[in-house]
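Thanks for the sequence, V.! I ran Glycine zipper 2TM domain-containing protein right away. Repeating your input here for the record:
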Amino acid sequence: MKKNLMLAGLLLSSASAVFAQNAQTSKQQYSEASKQAANRYAEDKKLCAEEASSSARMQCLRDAKAVYTNALAAAKTASVSNNVSANQKNQPVCAECGRVVAVNVSEKEGEGSALGVIAGGVAGALLGNQVGGGTGRDLATIAGAAGGAMAGHKIEQKVKSAKVWTVTVQYDNGNKQSFHFDQDPGFQSGDLVKNSGSGIVRR
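Predicted structure:
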């Protein structure tokens, strides 16, 4: 029984050594580990036959079987793990794939045109023309025209202002890029996306 316990450690270390060889494929590794486990099991059974009593022999065989079963399970687990790791290594990094890390909404000021300036200036001049008389009226008209032109320009900018959605993406290769949308694109932080033309889409 004690012999089997010692052999258990040897068997598991042998399986580990087999799987440490990167040159072998997962199937080859599992096959080699299974073969070693079977050989060790056969040797253990021979040792069990040397036990003095039948109860000791039965217990020895049970222990040997348990060691063999555990070795196969360890070999299978290591094989699957190595296979997954190999597949992950073989997958190229998608340079156009990433994850949304921020979505911000801001107000974009509209463009003022000559129309706003002219309309504001005319309105201001009309109001200024109603103040005082003589030279004072002329000065009020000029001041009203100037002030009205400026006010008209600002009002037009405000009327033409619009919301802008800025979506920041962090790519799988570590790069970051921001995309601007005139309408809510529906993205949220954490969404997986990829490039599509000059924008992005879900993936």
